[in-house]
Design a protein that fits this description.
The chain has 65 residues and is mainly α. It has a domain of 30 residues. It contains 2 helices and no strands. Helix 1 packs antiparallel against helix 2. The longest helix is centred in the last third of the chain and has 33 residues. The protein is elongated, with a radius of gyration of 17 Å. The two termini are 24 Å apart.
Amino acid sequence: MIANWPWTLVAMMSINNKLHETDLEDAGPASRMLVEEWGGLHAVRSALGLAATFAFLIACSSVSL
């Protein structure tokens, strides 16, 4: 469940910072490419979250009461 944190900090944070620094007047094709790249990285982050959810559910179902 913690795998999202390093992924977010290492892979996504630099792109996120570049996007935040871009003024609306300066947005253009380069900004669009950053948003598209960020979207792909976010898809990986979502997959990590989904895998963590499944791992949690499997672990919960294997616990005997």
